[in-house]
Amino acid sequence: LPTILVTDNLNVPTMVSAGALVPLRKIGAVSTKGYLKGPLSTVTYQGKLYGLPLGNNDLALYYNKTMLKKAHIAPPRTWTQLLIDAKKLSRGSVYGIAFSAPSNEQATWQFAPFLWSKGGSYQHFNSANAVAALSLWAKLVSEGGASKSVVNFGQTDVYNEFAGGRAAMMEMGPWMIPPLKSTHIQYGVVPLPTPKVGQTPISPIGGEAWTVTSDGNRAQQQAALTFIKWVQQPRILVNFDEKFGYIPAYLPAYTQFVKQNPGFAVFAKQLKSAQALYTGLKDQLPAVSNAVSTAIQQVLTGTATPKTAASSAASTIAPLIK
Fold this sequence. Notes:
The chain is of the alpha+beta class.
């Protein structure tokens, strides 16, 4: 491996367990003062710091202003409104909402805000709250508010549906803001709907972190750490994250970024309440994600009820995180 590795923060626990990463403070002094708590948690495992956030993101609801205005609809704030509005916005080849639910981690990632906002968790996936979240997605598809093809949609497919005018709304992150600027779509961004009005959406935290691998000698590792700390300077970090559609986790850079990029305001605010996707799952996210995405596929294709699918997934998850 190279000495510096740009790591998807979702993979930090599994890479640590594989012995691939070195705790930064084993190499030299690192200050974590001034970082947002959520993003910092994504690079901390078993009490040790393994990286510094390069840029973070989360999930929100994009909506086509023209389509919603024509249908006399305001962006939905609750699950009930989402079901009604998505169905009303579906006409011909256009669906009310697009989201990503394939048989992989993208489904686990996009399902998390609905699960967590309802009070559910991946650790206890057979709870009533988890079943309720699965039922919501099932109704969106069965009642025609979302295409049956969501079971095959990767996140890029979701973006293409929205950018192509075939979806009035989409669940997506801030990295799609730069490409949307080159389209004709007039869009807005609001928090994802929650079960009740006034609830704070809880989104998973995405993005990458600079990490140092166990390969290489100490001099290389120290040079890597010097570079990683240098990149955290606001003038560098802000410029980098603007290009990638990410948000800085280091507060001096975060403040500057939000001021310069008001279109990211919803995502930036949500980072303060967001959490790591692997929360409570130790280093078992890949296996847990397989069980969860299988359950989602079963529910959306009608091969199992939400309760049965959740129960089956939970029986797989429990021994993994015991």
